[in-house]
Amino acid sequence: MSAVVERLKIRHRLPAARWPTREEAARARLFQPARIGPIVAEQRTWVPAMVPWRATEDGFVTEEVLAWYARFAEGRPGVLVVEATGIRDVASGPLLRIGDDRFLPGLRRLVETVREKSAGHTRLFIQAIDFVAVRRRPDTEKFLRRFLEVNSALRRRLTNMTHDAAWLEADEAAVRERLVSAERALLEAVLDARQLEALDYGYRERIWDTHLPHIRELPRVLPGLFAEAGRRAREAGFDGIELHYAHAYTMASFLSRLNTRDDGYGGPRAQRVRLPLEVLRAVRARVGSDYVVGIRYLGDDVVAGGSDVEDAAWFGARFAEAGVDYLSVSKGGRFEDAKQPRVGEAVYPYTGRSGYECMPTVLSDARGPFGRNVPLAARIRGAVRETGRDTPSSPAAASGRSSRRKPSSSAATRTSSAPPASRWPIPTGSGRSASATATSCGAASSPTTARASTSSTSR
């Protein structure tokens, strides 16, 4: 982490700007209509999904959730995407859920609120997410006494390090007591890499942990869960559903080069994209051809051994061929390079270099934060065009650099979530103001503190 901080010491000034005239706004591509599958958005301003942690602990819409999205809707962006919403009916903290019909009344209220506050001008999508287990970093003694698996491999390593064969047959409680009293060097020698990670960062499942039955079954289970989420999204009144294939979560992990599953769902690109395509097809079959289905995914993992833009371009072409209605391109936000959490806290995937690339700020490297994601989206767009498709793509904040050869729209969060009077007012034919571009990634704490970035994500 120190190396990351060392490189990000240059403070960049915000670009000089002025308010455009009505005529300039009318000519700007950003404020032109855009077709997204079966619908048309009035303009290309786009608020990507952010998680504000305002739901109840069991995933229901609250008044705070409604107020959050009402504030976005007042600016009348072309598209507003609701935060990452869990497709399973499992405990996940104050994160919205769509894993059961009992969540539909609250989601309908959310749709109605956005329709009212935007006067029907904003298209509303909801992002659907799946994730596997991530535990909080434990206290060392508690971990060694309760959670560490004392297996034969650990016993052999302890025997080798202490030159005492008695540990091969010793009572498990005695092994644990020995480790509790051990120096750090002995723990590092006796625990394997995953055990050390669980101690130092908290236990974290991978989608290639196929020795775990529920992980092995993911390809069988997930298409149906996402399809049901799509059905509920449509019944709630959303204009579309966005499949969350980005960052540190389940579907992004299937796409990543780090995916080593040996069951036909890992390894080569064609196998890594297999489940994401199966999910896309299942959702499409459930919601129909007259409903928007988009995908949010990574243009670059930004971690050692992860996928890069060439992988992303190839995946984008496959998604377009399979009939996705739009691609939303993000970057980074991975667990692999995240900062060590404090005891009692969970590792957060936006704290390392990949997290910075997901949410760059004005404190940056020589390249600066502006438009960092545009080349990724442009490369993906080019690959999609080579298939003969015209699937729209949206990077997080192109910073005004979109063109016909580059992204189709530009994502915005911080500017869109500012108080209405302080947003960039773009004169439109109706006399209303529309939001300008910034970008987003990750969780936001409040409308006025959401961090600007040039690479948007969701959770």
Q: Helicity range of the residues?
A: 25-40%
What is the C-level CATH assignment of the largest domain?
Alpha Beta
The CATH topology of the largest domain is given as: TIM Barrel
Taking strands numbered 1, 2, ... along the chain, how are they ordered across the largest sheet?
A: 11-9-8-7-6-5-4-12
Nearest-integer average pLDDT: 87
Shape: globular
Strand content: 5-15%
**Number of distinct beta strands:** 12
Question: Could you spell the SSE succession in H and E letters?
Answer: HEHEEEHEHEHHHHHHHEHHHEHEHEHEEH
Indicate how many domains the architecture comprises.
2
Distance between the termini: 21 Å
CATH architecture of the largest domain: Alpha-Beta Barrel
The assigned structural class equals: alpha/beta
Q: Any idea what the CATH superfamily of the largest domain is called?
A: Aldolase class I
Biggest sheet, open or closed, and with what strands and sense?
8 strands, parallel
Uncertain residue ranges = 397-405, 417-459
Over the alpha carbons, how many angstroms does the gyration radius reach? 23 Å
Number of helical regions: 18
What is the structure about, briefly put?
The chain has 459 residues and is an alpha/beta fold. The protein is built from 18 helices and 12 strands. The protein has helices at residues 2-7, 22-27, 63-73, 104-117, 140-147, 152-162, 172-180, 184-190, 193-201, 213-216, 218-236, 250-255, 269-272, 274-287, 309-321, 353-358, 374-386, 414-417, and strands at 10-11, 34-36, 39-41, 45-47, 79-86, 123-129, 240-245, 292-298, 326-330, 363-364, 393-395, 410-411.
